[in-house]
Design goal:
Strand content: 15-25%
Distance between the termini: 55 Å
Largest sheet: 3 strands, antiparallel
Helix content: 25-40%
Strand order of the largest sheet: 2-6-7
Number of strands: 11
Number of domains: 1
Order of helices and strands: HHHEEEEHEHEEHHEEHEE
Number of helices: 8
Shape: elongated
Structural class: alpha+beta
Length: 258
């Protein structure tokens, strides 16, 4: 007699469906953000963490559960390098739009991936571990050249675990997230009469999450196309891969913000 509490290993079809469904969920949430539903950033974070975050035996990401034809996973990065002489807090996955006209001074953030889509900015391929756990998406250099910031892993987990993706905690405990999302970014302008205006720029978290969603769905699609990740299964639940072919390796210059 089968023990009803015995665990059943996941079938390959379930794993591939999870991969494709999470990517589809990210795309739908990105469409929601484009329609003005900024809360969809929390759903993107939840899907990204499900796809990518592993922590020991109990938490294994969808990507780690899937058999791969290459150990070197490459992810798209639309971020720009951190500059050690920049003492201001800098967000690397967004671009700032400013306007100063008869209606006054205004500014807002847009996802930097929009510039990639428009062909105005290059995107780089970097190793997954660097992209997820080491590349800073918010950063600042202190006067003693100490660099502080947040990685994609830290940022996505805060959105999922504390801000409302899967949990809404009574307190925010990640000081970097508090600093960058709530207090870190101000736009200052000076009018013709010499008056200085300061304005807090909102939604840096939501627009940054949009860029991460874009990076993830394009990285997964590219790795399926290049034969690294499976695109489906056959009738016997065997994984189906495109022919494996090498994709470009990043140059030293592309990793200069490591």
């Amino acid at each position: 007699m089968t023990d009803p509490y015995d665990p059943r290993p996941r079938r390959n079809a379930e794993k591939v469906n999870a991969l494709n469904n999470e990517c589809l969920a990210i795309m739908r949430s990105m469409e929601g953000i484009n329609e003005g539903h900024l809360f969809e950033a929390l759903r993107i974070a939840t899907s990204v963490v499900s796809l990518l975050h592993s922590n020991g035996r109990r938490t294994v990401s969808v990507l780690d559960q899937i058999e791969k034809q290459s150990d070197e996973l490459m992810f798209m990065s639309v971020g720009d390098p951190h500059h050690s002489n920049n003492l201001l807090a800098s967000p690397h996955l967004v671009t700032l739009r400013m306007k100063n006209d008869e209606n006054g001074f205004s500014c807002h953030y847009e996802p930097k991936c929009n510039l990639v889509i428009e062909g105005r900015l290059p995107a780089f391929s970097v190793p997954f571990e660097f992209w997820w756990s080491r590349e800073l998406i918010f950063s600042q250099s202190d006067p003693d050249n100490t660099r502080t910031g947040m990685t994609r892993e830290e940022f996505c987990r805060v959105l999922r675990d504390q801000v409302g993706g899967s949990h809404f905690d009574s307190e925010l405990t990640n000081q970097s997230f508090i600093k960058y999302s709530e207090h870190g970014f101000q736009a200052i302008s000076t009018s013709q009469d010499g008056t200085t205006h300061s304005q807090h720029i909102p939604h840096v978290a939501e627009m940054s999450m949009f860029s991460i969603g874009y990076e993830v769905i394009n990285s997964v699609a590219r790795m399926q196309d290049y034969g690294v990740l499976p695109y489906g299964v056959d009738e016997d639940d065997r994984l189906l891969f495109n022919p494996l072919r090498p994709y470009p390796v990043p140059t030293e210059g592309e990793l200069q913000n490591e």
